[in-house]
Amino acid sequence: MLEERWTEYLRLYREGATYSSFVKLAEINHCLGYAPQLLTQKWSATIQNVPITDDDVQSLRAGVAQKIQRLQRIVSAGTHFMFEETLLLVTMRVELELLSAFLVERGIVVTMDVAALDDALQAIATSPVNARAFRSAQDAAKQNWGIPLHTRWLESPTVQ
């Protein structure tokens, strides 16, 4: 699975999809905390050798801002959310969390002002009208990723 993500990173990066490509690196990086030591050593070295240019950082900042704005638009659009909407919310928020952790490890500052967004997501997760869809979205996201992700946004029944 890590090899597939690496291949996807390379493809996305070549195509100029900087944000999406670095999300793939962040997924690999996250999994290393749960992988055997030999695998961890190999992939840690591989990831650490990925250069991150100033253009990459600029593109990542723009991508993060765009994703946060999109999430904010979605959560502010109503009070009753369908499964597909909550799946998108959960997926995008997990991606932001993974990317943030990866960039911090690399010493790169990308501001993610997500406190209000996180409050809105928490309200959706615990709302009687949305709780079931939110839990289903969490379960689907875990299955879709197919790798061990440990984040509060994929925990059930509520986000802590």
Would you write up a description of this structure?
The chain has helices at about 1-15, 20-30, 35-50, 55-75, 85-105, 115-125, 130-145. With about 160 residues, the chain is an all-alpha fold. The chain has one domain (about 1-155). Helix 4 runs antiparallel to helix 5 and helix 5 crosses helix 7 (about 130-145). The protein is globular.
- CA-atom Rg in angstroms: 16 Å
Percent helix: 55-70%
Indicate the low-confidence ranges by residue numbers: none
With helices defined by DSSP (H or I, 4 residues minimum), what is the helix count?
7
Secondary structure tally: strands: 0
| Share of β-strand residues | under 5%
How many domains in all?
A: 1
Which outline best applies? globular
Distance between the termini: 28 Å
Structural class: mainly alpha
Oligomer: single chain
